[in-house]
Specification:
Helices cover about 55% and strands about 20% of the residues. The protein is an alpha/beta fold. It has a 5-stranded parallel β-sheet, sandwiched between helices.
Length: about 160
């Protein structure tokens, strides 16, 4: 019988927690010889909401969206470099739209067995909980979810010769 985890995906969103999760995912994928994806979702739903509520003008939305696209490329390239350091093959996915819906789509399309997420932010209210896209994805995906904590330990593991 093979490993129960053949395909993994780490959600990268530009936070330090997501980079820690990426480091851990690289180490785990390498160890168990799983296929690894890194996914960044440009949250275009939030951008359109900012225009609808007149916080952004359409021209500002377009400029901010270009900045978010550049951030996505930068973070996905950083994760590629992390994987290269450990000689771990990785595939990157940049999606656009509603974050949790896109994560569900990518998980389903790629038959992901394990979704790796960085530590979730502390919830201050039920409203915050509802709008936390990573948490919504965690509750909605059809696969197992791993929440990576203990940044110092992960850093030490990544820097060691594993």
């Amino acid at each position: 019988m093979g490993s129960p985890i053949r395909t993994m995906m780490v959600h990268v969103d530009g936070t330090e927690q997501s980079i820690v999760a990426a480091q851990y995912a690289v180490l785990l994928a390498k160890q168990i010889e799983a296929r690894l994806f890194a996914a960044f979702v440009v949250n275009t739903r939030a951008l359109s909401d900012l225009v609808k509520t007149h916080i952004f003008l359409e021209t500002e939305e377009q400029e901010y969206e270009r900045d978010l696209e550049a951030d996505a490329d930068r973070y996905l390239n950083h994760v590629k470099q992390l994987a290269a350091q450990k000689d771990c093959p990785i595939e990157t996915v940049k999606a656009r739209g509603n974050v949790h819906q896109e994560l569900i789509r990518v998980v389903t399309e790629n038959h992901v067995d394990l979704l790796v997420l960085g530590e979730l932010a502390h919830v201050r209210s039920r409203r915050d909980e509802f709008y936390n896209e990573a948490e919504r994805a965690m509750r909605s995906v059809s696969c197992t979810v791993l929440i990576v904590k203990d940044e110092d330990r992960v850093y030490d593991l990544f820097e060691s010769n594993l």
